[in-house]
Amino acid sequence: MYGEGVRATLEGAGGIDVVALARTAAAGLEAVRALQPEVAVVDIGLPDASGLSVVAALQGTCRVLVLTSSDDDATVFAALRAGATGYLTKTADADDLVRAVRTVASGDGVLSAAVLDRVVRPATPRRREGPFPELTAREHEILELVAHGHSNAYIADRFVLSLKTVRNHVSAVMAKIGAGTRAEAVAMARDAGLGGAD
């Protein structure tokens, strides 16, 4: 019933075609292979396998938005490490779901407010000195490039990293600074003085 509700929400938004609804990991992977969608919306709790294995199996095939009841930090970061482009909890409203699918389809990462509140904000240290001291040196460099408007492909070339690694870095940066979208991360970085003229 929940899956049918998701289908109705997405199809009713306009501009989104739901090509399949699968209730198991095996059926979902087969549907992706046969239909080649841009985005797969994956639940963690599947009857025949963990959704995390599905996320990992779909890398290089399509972008993945995790939509699940779990918002604990271990599950969130496991999903991001497996290659999820976005993570949304089932408490999200219809507008958030549609926006998340479109954001992931565009190649940007997205984290739901519930995930940010549960995982990121309580654990984020207070700023000590300089902008975003919670970031590692590499994450800070990546945020600065994002603030300049550079793509993940540019960043991957700059640091000789895979696109998947860059996506994971960008997702981690967004999580640490409390940004729900890439655009919000850019705005926060520019407000902090990053992203000036090259």
Kindly describe this structure.
The protein has helices spanning 2-13, 25-35, 51-57, 73-82, 94-105, 113-120, 137-147, 152-159, 163-177, 182-191, and strands at 39-42, 63-68, 86-89, 110-111. Helix 5 (94-105) links the parallel strand 3 and strand 4 (110-111). By secondary structure, it is α/β, with parallel strands linked by helices. 53% of the residues lie in helices and 8% in strands. Residues 122-128 have low confidence and may be disordered. Helix 8 crosses helix 9 (163-177). It is globular, with a radius of gyration of 17 Å. It has a four-stranded parallel beta sheet with strand order 1-2-3-4, with helices on both faces. The protein folds into two domains: 2-120, Rossmann fold (3-Layer(aba) Sandwich), CATH 3.40.50.2300; 137-191, Winged helix-like DNA-binding domain superfamily/Winged helix DNA-binding domain (Arc Repressor Mutant, subunit A, Orthogonal Bundle). The chain is built from ten helices and four strands; from the N terminus they run H-H-E-H-E-H-E-H-E-H-H-H-H-H.
